[in-house]
Amino acid sequence: MDTIARSLLRKPARLTGEELRYLRKHVGMRTNAFAARVRVRPEHLSRVENGKSAVAEQLDRLARAVVSAELDQEFLRELLLDWVDDLEEAPEAPAPCFELHGKKWVPAA
Length: 109
What we know:
- Strand 1 and strand 2 form a beta hairpin.
- This protein has helices at residues 2-10, 17-26, 31-37, 42-49, 57-71, 73-89, and strands at 98-101, 104-107.
- It is built from 6 helices and 2 strands.
- It is mainly alpha-helical.
- The chain has one domain (2-107): 434 Repressor (Amino-terminal Domain) (Orthogonal Bundle), CATH 1.10.260.40.
- It has a two-stranded antiparallel ribbon with strand order 1-2.
């Protein structure tokens, strides 16, 4: 079971609701406790796990971090370092289109 959980945590694509439920149950967390840890309402987590809502990127990453922390601190460290590497490779954010000058928004230079 740990092998399945670890392979799900390492998969490059987002988790499905079914996979998220498997991971939550594998670490022995109830819906309410897990929802609190990943900062969503239990009702939303239920919809995600049942395939009625998509797994957002932020939820996916937080869920992986929570499950990793429950499984093994070293695994969590590796996962977080991989995410930092991803951030370093990400393209820079585009320049803002508008800037706030005093109380007025004006086109950016």
